[in-house]
């Protein structure tokens, strides 16, 4: 950001003015005004997204950071990352979001990014059984490399392909319930459904472990709490639940 005063041109053109501004006091004050520097972030958090190839990790990251969606994204090679600043609980948080490759040949590269992560999003594709069966493998990676304090969130992506679903929501809920502290949510990067919610919920869980200047009654209320699945008649398709 350039904080220098802009040089005033004389009315009617003819080059820059080399003499002091002799116009109105308001104009002189405006020429000397400097832009305020943005408030620095209160926290800087690292989040990583893991999961098998093709589950939509890159799509989730780009939808959250840039609000874009690519129908035919190329597979991530090694790691990629995006930066996004959010405000939550009255704090400014700078997020560094790492998108990791799903292929096993990149595991030796991506393992280093687990260590500094405050939050880990584990993604599977609700239309592909093998991506769900790979979840224990990703949990082993977390146990081996990640901090015990890292917040975990399981995400079933591609909810826009409900007609092709092979992984029932209840299956994933049971899996997440066996992992201490792991939350679960379904989302669609394509439809932009629950994308902001999953990232903000994860950040909120991270912040809840940090000392904040906030009354305890406010800390006890989750900003984006998960809601239980409602009862629906058997002839109707289950509703797409939001994380909040």
Description:
With 244 residues, the chain is α/β, with parallel strands linked by helices. The chain has a domain at 43-209: P-loop containing nucleotide triphosphate hydrolases (Rossmann fold, 3-Layer(aba) Sandwich). 26% of the residues lie in helices and 20% in strands. It has 8 helices and 6 strands. It has helices spanning 25-32, 57-66, 107-110, 129-133, 135-145, 169-177, 195-207, 216-219, and strands at 43-51, 79-88, 91-100, 119-125, 151-157, 182-186. The protein has a 6-stranded mixed sheet with strand order 2-3-1-4-5-6, with helices on both faces. The model is unreliable at 1-22 and 214-236 (pLDDT under 50). Its EC number is 3.6.5.2. Belongs to the small GTPase superfamily. Rab family. Its main location: cytoplasm.
Low confidence ranges: 1-22, 214-236
The CATH homologous superfamily name of one domain equals P-loop containing nucleotide triphosphate hydrolases
Distinct helical segment count: 8
Count of individual beta strands: 6
**Can you list the strand order of the major beta sheet?**
2-3-1-4-5-6
Helix fraction bin: 25-40%
Could you tell me the CATH topology label of one domain: Rossmann fold
Overall pLDDT level = 76
CATH class of one domain: Alpha Beta
Instruction: Report how far the terminal alpha carbons are from each other.
Output: 37 Å
Radius of gyration: 24 Å
Structural class: alpha/beta
Overall 3D shape: globular
Largest sheet: 6 strands, mixed
InterPro entries: P-loop_NTPase, Small_GTP-bd, Small_GTPase, Small_GTPase_Rab
Family: Belongs to the small GTPase superfamily. Rab family.
Enzyme class: hydrolase
Subcellular location: Cytoplasmic vesicle, Autophagosome; Golgi apparatus membrane; Lysosome membrane; Recycling endosome membrane
């Amino acid at each position: 950001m350039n904080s220098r005063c802009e040089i005033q041109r004389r009315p009617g053109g003819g080059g820059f003015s080399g003499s002091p501004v002799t116009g109105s006091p308001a104009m002189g004050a405006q020429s000397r005004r400097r832009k305020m520097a943005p408030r620095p972030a209160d926290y800087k958090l690292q989040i990583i997204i893991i999961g098998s190839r093709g589950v939509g990790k890159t799509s989730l990251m780009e939808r959250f950071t840039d609000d874009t969606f690519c129908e035919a994204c190329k597979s991530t090679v090694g790691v990629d990352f995006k930066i996004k600043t959010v405000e939550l609980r009255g704090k400014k948080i700078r997020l560094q979001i790492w998108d990791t490759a799903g292929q096993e040949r990149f595991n030796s590269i991506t393992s280093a990014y687990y260590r500094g992560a405050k939050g880990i999003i584990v993604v599977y594709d609700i239309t592909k059984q093998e991506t769900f069966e790979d979840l224990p493998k990703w949990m082993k990676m977390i146990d081996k490399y990640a901090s015990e304090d890292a917040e975990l969130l399981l995400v079933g992506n591609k909810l826009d392909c409900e007609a092709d679903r092979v992984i029932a929501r209840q299956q994933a809920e049971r899996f997440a319930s066996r992992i201490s502290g792991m939350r679960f949510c379904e989302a669609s990067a394509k439809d932009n459904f629950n994308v902001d919610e999953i990232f903000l919920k994860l950040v909120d869980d991270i912040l809840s472990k940090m000392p904040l200047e906030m009354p305890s009654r406010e800390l006890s209320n989750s900003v984006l709490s998960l809601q239980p699945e409602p009862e629906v008649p058997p002839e109707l398709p289950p509703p797409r639940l939001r994380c909040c």
